[in-house]
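Input (EME1 endonuclease):
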Amino acid sequence: LADLQLDRQMQVSSFETWEELGEFAMMFTKAVAQAPYKRQQENTGFSFYLEKSWCGGVKVDRSGKGLFQVWKRQIQQFNRVSVEMAEAIVSVYPSPLLLIEAYEKCSSEQERVNMLANIPVHRGDGVTATCRRIGPELSRRIYLQMTSPDPDLCLDATG
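Output:
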């Protein structure tokens, strides 16, 4: 196995049960199926070029039209937050005020910290569709960003 991994640069995986092998085969097949889509998403032509829809800004008129898009982009500013994750959060809390009000209704600090953790995040369509959740770490970071009075707070620090 060491010869295969080091000299031939091959990946070697061992499995205890046939179920583990089946899960690995399913994961690998899904990754292969998604690869062309991911390559196309990353192919902008220039390494420094960002899509206009992301870096072009959002217009907000006097009636407030466009604020929802600003809120969604604010959530996307967090490290390791995808478009799908931001859409999941803003679908439940369509404005920062509604999120703050929901935090205020919680009975404990722990409930506030984990309030967003179980929001489902849907990604992809058809065979490659997945459903996961926001998770406790992002929920904690958003809670801290929305409620902390400390302007120097590091949201990605552990502990």
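The chain has two domains: 1-42, 67-146.
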